[in-house]
Backbone:
C-alpha cells in the first residue's frame, strides 16, 4: 500500500518543491518508510558526462598491483606441506606451532593490518571523546584490561577516542590520538610472548612495540619520527 | 597470479570506471582523480581480506571518497594549493567564470558545468544516485549521513540544477 503523500514526495525528490512545501515534504520523509523508497528522475540525467578511467590509469594500477608483495600465508603453507609424505609428523609439528606465539613478522603485519583496516574503513573510533574520564570507563566495560589513557593535548597529542580490535588472536584496546592531521593508534593487548618486534616501518607506517608487565603495546602512525618518539615517551612516562 | 589478486581483479576492478567517475567529480581534475583512484584501489586491495560480503561497489566508492578527503586535508596541511574543493565555499556560483561560460557551448557541457558548480554535499549524492545508481541506503553509508539527509540533499541538488538550467536556458 502506498502512502498518500507519495506523489508529493516524488515532486520534492525531483527538486520541484520550494520553501515550506519542501520543508513539509522533508519532514514527512524523515518518518515515512514508504516514502523513503520513493524515486524520481532528476531534471536532466543522461547528458552529463560519466567519466571513464583512462587506459593509462588501468595500466598503472595493474603494475602497482603486481608490485604488491604476495601476502604471507603461513597456515596455507603448513597445511599444504602437511599433505605431503611427512604428513603425520608435520601435523604433530603443526599442532605444536599453532600454540606458539605469533612470529615477529606476523605481529608487525597484524598491527599494520588492523591500523590500515581501521583507516580505510573510516572506523577508527568506536567511543569518540577527548576526555579520558569517558574513554577509560568505556574500555573498562568492553575489554578485560586497562590501557593507559592519557591527556596529552597540551603536548599536541589530542585524545580522540578508542575502539576494540584484534591482534594475534587477542582482543586489543586501541587508544586513538590525533596529532594535527595524523592519526596515532596505540594498541594494547595481553602479551603472550616475551619478545616483540623492533621498531620499524611496515607499509609506510612507523611502529614501535614495547612491553610492560603482562601487557604488550604497539604505537602506529604515519607521522615523522621525532614527534612520534615524543609521543611514545609521553605514553610510557604516564604509565610509570 | 595469486588467488587474492585474481579475486580482487574479478570483483573490484570492474568498478574502476565508477571509482574514477566519482573521484573525477569530487576533485574536478583529471590528474587528481587518477592519483586518488590509484590510492583508493591499492588501499582496497590491502583491505580486501577484511572485506566480508556485501556489495563491492559501495565499499569501493566509500574508500574513494575517503582517499579524496585525505588528499584534500594533506594539501591543506602542507600549505599547497588545495584541491578545488569547496567544503566551505558558497552555493552555486552566480557568475560563472569565463571557462565555464565557454563550456556552455553544448547542452552536455552546460550540464557538466552546472553539476561541477554544485556544492560538494549535493554534487556527491547526485553523482552517486544518477550516474552510479546507488540506493539511498548505500549512499547513506558512503557519505556517512542518514537516509533522510541523503534524500534532502538529492532534492536540493536537483532543485539547484533546475534553477540554473532555467536561468541559463532562455527558451
Residues:
Amino acid at each position: 500500500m502506498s502512502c498518500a503523500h507519495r506523489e508529493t514526495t516524488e515532486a520534492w525528490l525531483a527538486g520541484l518543491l520550494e520553501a515550506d512545501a519542501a520543508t513539509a515534504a522533508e519532514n514527512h520523509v524523515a518518518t515515512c518508510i514508504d516514502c523513503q523508497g520513493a524515486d524520481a528522475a532528476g531534471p536532466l540525467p543522461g547528458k552529463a558526462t560519466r567519466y571513464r578511467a583512462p587506459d593509462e590509469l588501468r595500466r598503472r594500477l595493474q603494475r602497482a598491483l603486481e608490485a604488491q608483495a604476495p601476502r604471507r600465508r603461513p597456515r596455507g603453507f603448513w597445511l599444504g606441506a602437511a599433505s605431503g609424505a611427512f604428513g603425520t609428523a608435520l601435523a604433530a609439528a603443526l599442532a605444536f606451532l599453532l600454540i606458539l606465539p605469533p612470529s615477529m613478522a606476523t605481529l608487525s603485519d597484524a598491527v599494520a593490518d588492523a591500523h590500515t583496516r581501521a583507516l580505510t574503513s573510516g572506523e577508527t573510533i568506536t567511543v569518540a571523546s577527548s576526555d579520558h574520564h569517558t574513554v577509560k570507563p568505556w574500555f573498562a566495560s568492553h575489554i578485560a584490561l586497562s590501557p593507559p589513557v592519557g591527556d596529552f593535548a597540551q603536548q599536541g597529542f589530542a585524545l580522540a577516542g578508542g575502539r576494540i580490535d584484534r591482534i594475534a588472536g587477542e582482543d586489543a584496546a586501541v587508544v586513538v590520538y590525533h596529532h594535527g592531521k595524523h592519526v596515532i593508534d596505540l594498541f594494547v593487548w595481553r602479551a603472550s610472548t616475551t619478545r616483540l618486534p623492533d621498531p620499524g616501518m611496515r607499509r609506510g607506517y612507523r611502529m614501535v612495540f614495547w612491553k610492560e608487565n603482562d601487557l604488550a603495546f604497539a604505537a602506529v602512525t604515519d607521522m615523522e619520527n621525532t614527534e612520534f618518539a615524543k609521543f611514545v615517551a609521553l605514553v610510557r612516562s604516564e604509565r610509570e | 597470479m595469486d588467488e587474492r589478486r585474481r579475486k580482487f581483479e574479478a570483483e573490484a576492478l570492474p568498478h574502476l570506471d565508477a571509482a574514477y567517475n566519482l573521484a573525477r567529480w569530487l576533485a574536478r581534475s583529471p590528474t587528481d582523480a587518477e592519483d586518488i583512484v590509484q590510492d583508493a584501489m591499492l588501499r582496497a586491495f590491502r583491505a580486501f581480506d577484511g572485506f566480508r560480503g556485501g556489495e563491492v561497489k559501495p565499499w569501493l566508492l566509500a574508500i574513494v571518497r575517503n582517499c579524496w578527503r585525505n588528499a584534500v586535508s594533506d594539501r591543506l596541511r602542507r600549505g599547497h594549493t588545495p584541491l578545488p574543493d569547496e567544503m566551505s565555499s558558497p552555493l552555486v556560483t552566480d557568475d560563472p567564470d569565463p571557462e565555464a561560460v565557454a563550456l556552455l557551448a553544448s547542452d552536455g557541457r552546460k550540464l557538466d558545468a552546472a553539476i561541477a558548480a554544485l556544492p560538494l554535499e549535493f554534487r556527491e549524492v547526485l553523482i552517486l544516485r544518477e550516474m552510479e545508481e546507488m540506493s539511498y541506503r548505500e549512499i547513506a553509508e558512503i557519505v556517512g549521513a542518514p537516509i533522510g539527509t541523503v534524500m534532502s540533499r538529492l532534492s536540493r541538488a536537483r532543485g539547484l540544477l533546475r534553477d540554473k538550467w532555467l536561468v541559463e536556458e532562455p527558451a
Observations:
- The radius of gyration of chain A is 26 Å.
- The mean pLDDT of chain A is 80.
